[in-house]
Amino acid sequence: MIDGKQLLEEMNERSREVFRRVVEGYLATGTPVGSRTLTRDMSEKVSAATIRNVMQDLEYMGLLGSTHVSSGRVPTEGGLRMFVDGLLEVGDLQTSDRQLMDATMSSNSQDVSGVLDRIGAALSGVTQGASLVLAPKHEAPIKHIEFVSLGHDRALVVLVFGDGHVENRIFTPPPGQTPSSMREAANFLNALIEGRTLSDLQTVISRQITDRRQEIDQLAHAMVESGLAVWSGEGEGDGPDRLIVRGRSNLLAGDESEDNLSRIKTLFDDLERKRDIANFLELADEGEGVRIFIGSENKLFSLSGSSLVVSPYMNADRKIVGAVGVIGPTRLNYGRIVPIVDYTAQLVGKLIADRS
């Protein structure tokens, strides 16, 4: 792993400028940046040969790469990470972007999912990337839980909330479960509910797992360990835990090389399955603010080599209940997209707080 902070401190002004201009040029055009191009932009007058020497040093340091010796250079994932952490200048949110996002909130509709859908579409349009919105879980106190076997590898959990809301969620039970063991697990969980929300229940049972691991029913244990309230089956995209994806066609714009099309196909496969939805929220659950995941750092879509800019949003109790993000190629315009994602997360948080 490149120690970006240390490398930046060790680099002289010329090396830092060459590196910064290569990255900025690549982010703007998506093409390698050559030494002759940089001679026109450098703050000091230097020859193309001098710049090539600097580029070679940066390549040796693992910050730049090239397709072949005579080509220009592009930043590596490590180079992009160092740029984002140490040199990225995040701009202010543009007035036009703010107005467009605000317009999605003008409806007085109580249909939160519909508003989130419009927000996702607007975010995709503004950023020209694919937007992702993880809709919040239902956080009312639970009244009752039941497990229903659907086969040897599929089961249904029925959640009845105190406000009358009912959710049916598919999950994969541990091997060897029987209808009898599922009833016992439901009885164990129902004895602990006492008006708690799913988040509260997870905290209580996780503590009991630590204290009484051997006494707790295998199914109840497995359900809590896997998140209890997280979808794991297929076809539940219309549920309250759904991942809203908009603007996938934007990822194809201008990307016609075979490698890029293969990368995007892999990404589309991930998006279609909407697998590991819980991981999307985990990417953002380490605190407030926008986080940037570049290429392989992005564990949800790592195989496609895409970048993800994501921010959590909170409910009225300041609990993280969902996240919004933009996914695209590693050459995203991070400086513009970061404030847009941040502002959108604030809008969604206000929406959830107002509706709760």
UniProtKB/TrEMBL annotation:
Repressor found in the keyword field: yes
Summary of the function given for this chain in its UniProt record: Negative regulator of class I heat shock genes (grpE-dnaK-dnaJ and groELS operons). Prevents heat-shock induction of these operons.
Entry's family note: Belongs to the HrcA family.
Higher taxonomy: Bacteria, Pseudomonadati, Pseudomonadota, Alphaproteobacteria, Rhodobacterales
Record protein name field: Heat-inducible transcription repressor HrcA
PANTHER family found in the cross-reference section: HEAT-INDUCIBLE TRANSCRIPTION REPRESSOR HRCA (PTHR34824)
Keywords: Repressor, Stress response, Transcription, Transcription regulation
Domain Heat-inducible transcription repressor HrcA C-terminal: 115-338
Organism encoding this protein: Roseovarius pelagicus
InterPro entries, per database record: GAF-like_dom_sf, HrcA, HrcA_C, WH-like_DNA-bd_sf, WH_DNA-bd_sf, WHTH_transcript_rep_HrcA_IDD
